[in-house]
Amino acid sequence: MIQSVSNVIEKNGKTIKENNLELKHNISIGTLVEVKYDEWYGDGACEKVHARLFIVAHGRDCDGTPLYSLCHHKTISQYNKISIKIGFTESDLKIIEQTNNVKKGKFVLEWK
After folding, report:
1. Cα 2 from Cα 85, distance rounded (Å)
2. φ, ψ dihedrals at 40, nearest 5°
């Protein structure tokens, strides 16, 4: 019999999914965050991303893990839905304080 990982019972007697559903989203919608990732697709296709985007929605993975959706606009509209990036965990994100320098584009997106 195949068992879903999210149905595995943990030490506290609850499933992984039950425990994950108790986790809260700790970053508010509208917060500016920085995300970095690279993805290898094979045959030379790849993606390297370093971006500052706004959290526009909260969601959950199939195992209940809190996820965040990001966009270059603070709010979702019919015109920017296609540019929303989904499926980021809190550990993928770094909160960025919106100082005047940040708002003017100074000292941003330095890949180290």
Report:
1. 31
2. -105, 120
pTM: 0.82
What long-range pairs does 65-69 form, CB within 8 A, spacing at least 24? 65/20, 65/23, 65/89, 66/20, 66/23, 66/24, 66/25, 66/26, 66/90, 68/25, 68/27, 68/33, 68/92, 68/93
> Which residues lie across from 53 on neighbouring strands?
33
- Domains, the chain, ordered by start: 5-104 (2.30.30)
Residues (pLDDT < 50) of the chain are none
